[in-house]
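Cross-check.
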Amino acid sequence: MKETKSIKAKKHNLNKHYNEWRKISWDAKEYKLKILNKIDEVLDFLEETDVVYVAQLRIRIAYSVPAAEYQIAEKYFLKVVKNEELFANNPDILETTYQGLGDLYFETIQYDKASDVYIKLLKINKIAVLLEEDILQMGIAMVNHSKGIYHNKAEELFLFVYNSCVCDEEMDHLMATETNYNLGLVKFKLKKYKEAKLYLEKALVLYKQRKWDCENIYQMLNCISDMVDNKPKSAPNY
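Predicted model, tokenized:
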């Protein structure tokens, strides 16, 4: 549909406000937010006529916000997510939004929210090559530094990655090694010992191939043997 002169004028003014906003230092936060409010008014008006243009500008704003003002960035990412069903023909919009929002939650130690967002991103981009390290690091942080609060979320995240095409036979060896190990570790911490054993045994093979220290895996497997397999304490170790 052809744009009216009114819409073109609003976009022109919007771009002027955005360029002005970008040049203002966050030291002048009050003035910067005042300009941002003007931008919001126009974006809200244009949303019904050009949702893609509006989403793209909101994403640019979100990525321009410093970490200290992460709640502002979150607001703009979430406004894009609100209209996700409208971007079926523009998957790059949702990929960029979920990537930014997931990173934001991860960097602000909101691991439960980060997990949900990354899983949504994986559903959009099933290969998710660029996400592999982010996902692993987030899951590892959830397992090791959350005092058990996020272990279930970490398990969900690792399982989603494992069961997706990321973890097929062509998967990077390092990624396969770390995914199997961390799945085994989180299931061990959740006391799902029989399930943990399956992944830890896979991880053990991969660890040996990489000539990594396997002591921690041996300890968990022997612990599982004692508790689940009912082997006597004197039974040979793995």
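The two ends are 69 Å apart (CA to CA). Residues 4 and 185 are 59 Å apart (CA to CA). Passed to J.P. for a second look.
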